[in-house]
């Protein structure tokens, strides 16, 4: 099923969070860093595809099931299951004029933007706070040959700040020196 979401700016914040890579400089129990963030135009269309779509007006949810794919520009999101929670206010979801409150992702999550990729088991995005969380047995962030591994990634889309937590041990980072931009 293909559904075009008319409120592109509502999901573009989720896709902003998918730009997750910037060399992290420390290895410890957890790692924090500033992240650049993806600059998307609010007027770019968002395409959503899934095997099924169930809209529950009373519960203010849209449930996308099976092979969920979200694409905006060069950024894509894939998951097994996505639940979009809308704010109450008497507006109909099918009319396309509702505001998104929260997005929950499950069944394996893959975020892609150019050379950058993030994977985890589950994810969520809170619209009001602009916080994206990706969790799993192993959350893997990669940008070409640079790889970051932990269990929970929290990205504050407003500030670009990111925090990667370990899986009871340590955060693992592999940096390729050839990937560093030369200083000018």
From TrEMBL:
The keyword Signal applies. InterPro entries: LPS_export_LptA, OstA-like_N. GO terms for molecular function: glycolipid transfer activity. One of its GO terms (cellular component) is cell outer membrane. Pfam families: LptD_N (PF03968). This is Lipopolysaccharide export system protein LptA. One of its GO terms (biological process) is lipopolysaccharide transport. Residues 47-160 form the Organic solvent tolerance-like N-terminal domain. Keywords: Signal. Residues 1-28 form the signal peptide.
């Amino acid at each position: 099923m293909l559904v075009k979401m008319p409120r592109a700016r509502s999901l573009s914040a989720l896709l902003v969070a998918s730009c997750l890579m910037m060399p992290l400089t420390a290895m410890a129990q957890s790692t924090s860093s500033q992240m650049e963030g993806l600059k998307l135009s609010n007027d770019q269309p968002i395409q959503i595809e899934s095997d099924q779509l169930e809209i529950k007006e009373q519960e203010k949810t849209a449930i996308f099931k099976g092979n969920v794919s979200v694409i905006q520009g060069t950024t894509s999101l894939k998951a097994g299951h996505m639940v979009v929670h809308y704010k109450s206010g008497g507006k109909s979801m099918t009319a396309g004029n509702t505001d998104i409150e929260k997005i929950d992702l499950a069944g394996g999550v893959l975020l892609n933007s150019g050379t950058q990729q993030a994977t985890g088991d589950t994810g969520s995005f809170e619209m009001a706070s602009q916080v994206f969380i990706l969790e799993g047995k192993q959350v893997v962030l990669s940008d070409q040959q640079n790889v970051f591994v932990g269990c929970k990634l929290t990205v504050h889309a407003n500030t670009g700040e990111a925090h990667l937590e370990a899986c009871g041990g340590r955060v693992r980072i592999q940096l390729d020196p050839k990937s560093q931009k030369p200083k000018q």
